[in-house]
Amino acid sequence: MSGRAFGVDIGGSGVKGAPVSLTSGELTDERFRIETPQPATRDAVAGTVAEVIAHFKPKAKVPIGVTFPGVVQQGVIRTAANLDPSLIGVNLQAAIREASGRDVRVMNDADAAGYAEYQYGAAEGKDGLVLMVTLGTGIGTALIADGRLVPNTELGHLIVDGRDAEEFAAESARERHNLDWAQWAAHVNRYLQEMERLLWPDLIIIGGGVSKDYQEFVPLLHLRAPVVPAALRNEAGIIGAAAQAAEAARIAAQHAARTT
């Protein structure tokens, strides 16, 4: 990829954005962040995203991607576990377009992070199946098969040994159940064993805030696939949103050229 795009990452506590170099996968300016509105209604979220975009005034042809912490289908929000449930069923993509006057592409946040890691990070150029797992308040997942993203996998809610995996393997479970690193690593290992049984990934990437402490628990995991920490950390969502938006714009341009 070459050129520039713009990414916005909607989170439970903040909405942050920045321009991104598609050549290097790096932010080309310091992130701008606004607190997530409370309540996080359709108009409030769309208006906040529009404010972040307006702060940088990207040129008209710059692709803009926006992440959301939930399932997103064609811009429509299907789940919103950590934001206002009134967003479910909302076409947030259309709402942001209306508020900002800009064309945008809205996608799942874990998908964006996984795509960024494939393009520029820990899985750059990796063939086969890459599984990214973000361990935080919950568990997010992304699957990239030979460079193609499989959207909205939501495998953090897989039932393992009769329990929702998030309940025992998310980073929040370590704090909630007062587990030491070795105890928690055993829980994460059990979850990832089930993922391996179902998917046979060639590489597993651990993301989320806990990835900075990977030396505390990754050496305790015993899996077939190599396990590595995410390289892009908290910038992965912004970078992946920008890169996905740019790729979508490229495909749309190719399609338009074929039909004219």
What features would you describe in this structure?
The longest helix is centred in the last third of the chain and has 23 residues, at 236-258. Helix 1 crosses helix 2 and helix 3 crosses helix 8 (236-258). The mean pLDDT is 95. The chain has a five-stranded mixed β-sheet, sandwiched between helices. Strands 10-9-8-13-14 form a five-stranded mixed β-sheet. A two-stranded antiparallel sheet has the order 5-6. The protein has helices spanning 42-56, 92-100, 109-120, 165-169, 171-176, 181-199, 214-217, 236-258; strands spanning 4-10, 14-21, 32-35, 64-68, 72-73, 76-77, 105-108, 129-135, 139-145, 148-150, 159-160, 163-164, 203-207, 227-229. It is 36% helix and 23% strand. The chain is an alpha/beta fold.
Offer a quick outline of the entry.
By secondary structure, the protein is α/β, with parallel strands linked by helices. 36% of the residues lie in helices and 23% in strands.
Question: Which key terms come to mind for this protein?
Answer:
260 residues; alpha/beta; Nucleotidyltransferase, domain 5; 2 domains; five-stranded mixed beta sheet; globular
Number of helices: 8
What would you say the CATH architecture of the largest domain is?
2-Layer Sandwich
Distance between the termini: 25 Å
Strand coverage percent: 15-25%
Question: What's the layout of helices and strands?
Answer:
Blueprint: E1 4-10, E2 14-21, E3 32-35, H1 42-56, E4 64-68, E5 72-73, E6 76-77, H2 92-100, E7 105-108, H3 109-120, E8 129-135, E9 139-145, E10 148-150, E11 159-160, E12 163-164, H4 165-169, H5 171-176, H6 181-199, E13 203-207, H7 214-217, E14 227-229, H8 236-258
Parallel strand pairs: 1-4, 4-7, 8-13, 13-14
Antiparallel strand pairs: 1-2, 2-3, 5-6, 8-9, 9-10, 11-12
Helix pairs in contact: 1-2, 3-8
